[in-house]
Amino acid sequence: MWKRVSNFAELSWKLNNHKIIRKMSLIRNQGLINGEWVSSINSETFNVENPVDQSIITQVPDMNIDDTKLAINASKIAFDKFSKTTAKERSDLLRSWYNLMVKNSEQLAEILTKENGKSLAESRGEIKYGNSFVEWFSEEARRINGEILQAPMNNRELMIIKRPIGPAALITPWNFPHAMITRKVGAAIAAGCTCVIKPSEETPLTALALGKLAQDAGFPPGVINIITTGPKNSASVGKLLCEDPIIRVLSFTGSTNVGKILYKQCSSTIKRLSLELGGNAPYIVFNNSNIELAVNGAMACKFRNTGQTCVSANRFYIQNNVFDEFLNKFIQKINNDIKMGDGLSSSTTHGPLIKKSQIDNIENLVNDAISKGAKLHCGGKRLNNIGSLFYEPTVLTDVTENMNIYDREIFGPVAVLHRFDNEDDVLKKANSVPVGLAGYFWSNDVSQIFRVARKLEVGMIGVNEGLISCTEAAFGGVKESGLGREGSSHGIDDFIDIKYLCIGNIQY
Ligand code: SIN
Question: Whose CA is nearest to atom 8 of ligand 1?
Answer without folding.
Answer: 469
